[in-house]
Structure formats: C-alpha cells, structure tokens
Amino acid sequence: MGKVQILAILSMDGCLSELNPKKRLFRSPEDYGMEEIRGKALYRLTPDYTISILQDQREKEDDTCYLLEADAKTVGYANGLIRMNAVDEIIIYIMPCIIGTGDHFFKSGLFPTDWTLAENRKYGGGIIRLTYRRNRKRR
C-alpha cells in the first residue's frame, strides 16, 4: 500500500509559517532535508485529488509515496485527509518564532488518533523536524 505524507512548516504556536512572509526562516530547502522528502514522493497531492481516488490508487501501488505540502490553500484538505485516516506520516518543521496570527495547521473536528515519533532532527537556528507515523492499531 502506498504511503501518504503531509509536510508542514509551523511556528511554535502551530501556525503555518508561510502566512507571514516576513518570517521565512529557511535559507534554502535543501539545507533542511526538504528536497530529499520531496524527491521521494512520486505524486504531489493537491485539493483536486479526491480522497476516494487517492485511497483507490494507494491500495494498488506498493512503495509509492504521495506528498501534500500544507499551506494556506491546502490546510483544509490536509485536515480532511487526517480526518479520513488517509495519512501515514506527518512531517513537521517547527520554526523558532511565534506568529500570533494566521491559520493553525490542526483544526477542530479531528478525531483523537495516536502517532509515534519516528524521527527528530535539529538544525541550526533552532529549527526542528519531527516525523510522526500513525499508529494503525487502536489500544
């Protein structure tokens, strides 16, 4: 079965960092492993990609990675994928800033789910990357 990943760049208060262009802290994406993550994805998801088509394709294709980059335009779609249990990994970059306004990544209405921290990495300037994998079995 294919893997669905969401990549999000968040401030410490959980806001999508791109909503405040003055707070762009990345020198370049390759410095933080983002190009590697993007390179492993065979498909880049957009809100035009229906969840039913995604579920059908990922059942047919093993070792295929689908990537959605969360931003102001895709955050609703990202939360829909999470709500429908269609996400296997969430990769979060936490930026060392508080934006204070903007769109929060996780919206209300999500069901409680368990995730396991699979990887964490610290970069210069206080940037942290956390990779969480969904626990498929309920306790």
Automatic annotation (TrEMBL):
One Pfam family per UniProt: RibD_C
Record-annotated Bacterial bifunctional deaminase-reductase C-terminal domain positions: 78-128
GO molecular function, one term: 5-amino-6-(5-phosphoribosylamino)uracil reductase activity
Matching InterPro entries: DHFR-like_dom_sf (IPR024072), RibDG_C (IPR002734)
Top-level lineage group: Bacteria
Alphabetical GO biological process terms: riboflavin biosynthetic process
Name this protein carries in UniProt: Dihydrofolate reductase family protein
Source species: Bacteroides ovatus
